[in-house]
């Protein structure tokens, strides 16, 4: 089922933002104001991060780079495509924690974007060796996700989740 954006565009509280966000795979060509997404990125960096490593870096892919990434739908025609990378930690645990912090950063970004009617598409394409090279990712960093964003052309229906009751274990 496709929901038309105007029907969900309203002032949303945090629960509504979390529950109405969808992975968008088809975007309008309309640009997103750079001042807006810079604001979301800055605020996203208030994500929790252990030892204040602030382990995220962002690489915006322009048209030439996007072409070289050879994504099958060119990221659904999103006007913006950015890779978000994580720096390795000094230990394996620190690397895991840094990656968790970057995921928080990305979710912060996605929810702020959604709050202003901008949809996001998290792709794992950046993890491939070829994509790393295209993006010029340095040694000691990994791509956590390529995040395409723009105004949605289509918003997919919710993908139901397993009841959280089935995910909870209570210890004595
Ligand atoms: C780490 C990560 C990698 C993902 N990679 C892809 C991807 O390569 N291609 C894709 O279509 N969706 C990708 N997604 C999006 C998921 O498929 C999507 O979140 C899931 O189907 C649930 O849909 P929803 O986000 O609309 O709730 C990725 C999501 C995460 C968190």
What features would you describe in this structure?
The chain is an alpha+beta fold. It has a domain at 34-152: NADH Oxidase (3-Layer(aba) Sandwich), CATH 3.40.109.10. It has six helices and six strands. The chain has helices at 5-8, 14-20, 34-44, 63-69, 92-115, 129-135, and strands spanning 2-3, 56-60, 80-87, 119-123, 141-150, 155-156. The strands form two sheets. The protein has a four-stranded antiparallel β-sheet, with helices on one face. Helix 3 crosses helix 5 (92-115). The relative contact order is 0.24. The mean pLDDT is 94. Flavin mononucleotide binds at residues 22-23, 122-125, 145, 159. Residues 19-68, 69-151 form the Nitroreductase domain. One of its GO terms (molecular function) is oxidoreductase activity. This is Nitroreductase.
Summarize this, please?
The chain has 172 residues and is α+β, with helices and mostly antiparallel strands. The chain has helices at residues 5-8, 14-20, 34-44, 63-69, 92-115, 129-135, and strands spanning 2-3, 56-60, 80-87, 119-123, 141-150, 155-156.
Keywords:
globular; single chain; 6 helices; 4-stranded antiparallel beta sheet; 6 strands; NADH Oxidase; two-stranded antiparallel sheet; binds flavin mononucleotide; 172 residues; alpha+beta; 35% helix
